[in-house]
Amino acid sequence: MDEKLEQVEKILKKYKQEQLLRCYDKLIEAKKEELLDQILKIDFDHMQKLYEETKGKKDFKNFDIEPLPYVDKEKLEKEEKEKYQKDGTEIIKSGRYAVVTMAGGQGTRLGHDGPKGTFELEVNPKRPLFTLLSETIREAIEKYDAVIPWYIMTSKENNSQTQEFFKRHNYFEMGEENVKFFIQNEMPMIDTTGKILVDDKGMVKQAADGHGGIFEAMRKEGILEDMRSRGIEWIFIAGVDNVLAKMVDPILTGLAINRKCLAAGKSVVKNNPKEKVGVFCKKDNKPSVIEYTEITDEMAEAIDENGELLYGESHILCNLFNIKAVEEISINKLPYHSAFKKAKYIDENGVIVVPQEPNAYKFEAFIFDAFERLNDMAIMRVKREEEFAPVKNAEGVDSPETAKNLYLDFIKNKK
Ligand code: UTP
User: Which residue puts its alpha carbon closest to atom 18 of ligand 1?
Assistant: First the structure.
């Protein structure tokens, strides 16, 4: 232990991060050990680089941006649609299809006490988001008479609560062996001077590393191995907060297969040029998503020959990957983006500070940065009212109220 402590002290001195041992003496033995291990896992050179990057602004004009071709599900030729349906159905029926739900986010905007998936939507009867998602998957399991395993990505923060919730709900009658959990990675948070924060328990202040952390987590946590052993070929990955996510989609799967793409994404038409959503595009000839903060007004308003927005295919976090693509992507980390957030910490006087304004950088990888690692991607436009009802904010746009109404309308029209 003393040796380990010395080793840690040396590293911290080298990187001027000695504050991380601020509470060390007050911790119980087990926590001391855990703190030292936490510190030994940090890549300080990488953290320093990320800190430097928070000071500079990216120049998006350096990229060659073009629209990414897409197909509209509604406008597919009958024969084409039937072919996709047939090929996709074959994959699902033969047990080569899995669903992954990303539920490792903090859900800060919603402000629900507990994992976001346990938030109850006021539909009749009111049900948690996880329950609504499980209903969609179970419907497909019955329809295709197939085993469709469900993988849930959690964070260190919400993993045990999430697993307890599933246990209480008897794994939604899908069989415990068909519902698997895996924990995503965390990244330290730094203040504006580049110092890593100490959290309110005296440990390193860390936060989930973004939905882009999914690829690395699937590899490290043995999920890819588990999928391989079950013969899974296609993996649908979506967030926990879209209550209309159609996660088992034979047409999207058939489209990817017939286009010989290792990934496919669903889009909905952007409501208006100013809507705050990322849109699919080609960046230096590779599939990508350009965020609303990055797109110029001119590009956002550009119109194609049919009078539609040229960059109008919104990315809704509903994507399908071939397992080979996930394996490939998971080898190298995706880039991190910084976000300036409020983070509770212990200061140099040992006092817990609860900031009222953002005070620290959080580092997150985005799933769509993985698209650039692929040569091509099949994009399918679907109807917003059928597949997109996000729960993001406590009120206003994309809130429980809007999601509830969309969900109820969907159910009414389905009947
Ligand atoms: P959001 O970016 O909307 O984040 O995540 P969030 O955590 O739900 O909400 P805010 O921004 O804190 O208010 C979109 C999806 O990606 C998952 C979320 O759980 C959600 O399903 N996600 C996000 C992760 O699984 N891990 C992360 O680190 C971040």
Answer: 105
pLDDT tens figures, 256-301: 999 999 999 999 999 999 999 999 999 999 999 999 988 999 999 9
Question: What's the pTM value of the predicted model, to 2 decimals?
Answer: 0.96
Token pair 């950088």 in the structure block, residue: 361
Q: Which residues line ligand 1 (CB under 6 A)?
A: 102-109, 116, 153, 184, 208-211, 239-241, 317, 364, 392
The tokens for 240 are: 């926990």
Rounded to whole angstroms, the Cα distance separating 247 from 238 reads: 7
Query: How far, in Å, from the CA of 104 to the mean position of ligand 1?
Result: 6
Question: Within the chain, how many helices (H) and strands (E) appear?
Answer: 13, 20
Nearest to 210 by CA among 52, 314, 40, 341: 341
- Name the phi and psi angles at 395, rounded to 5: -150, 170
Reference 404, options 389, 383, 382; nearest CA is 389
pLDDT in tens, 215-261: 999 999 999 999 999 999 999 999 999 999 999 999 999 999 999 99
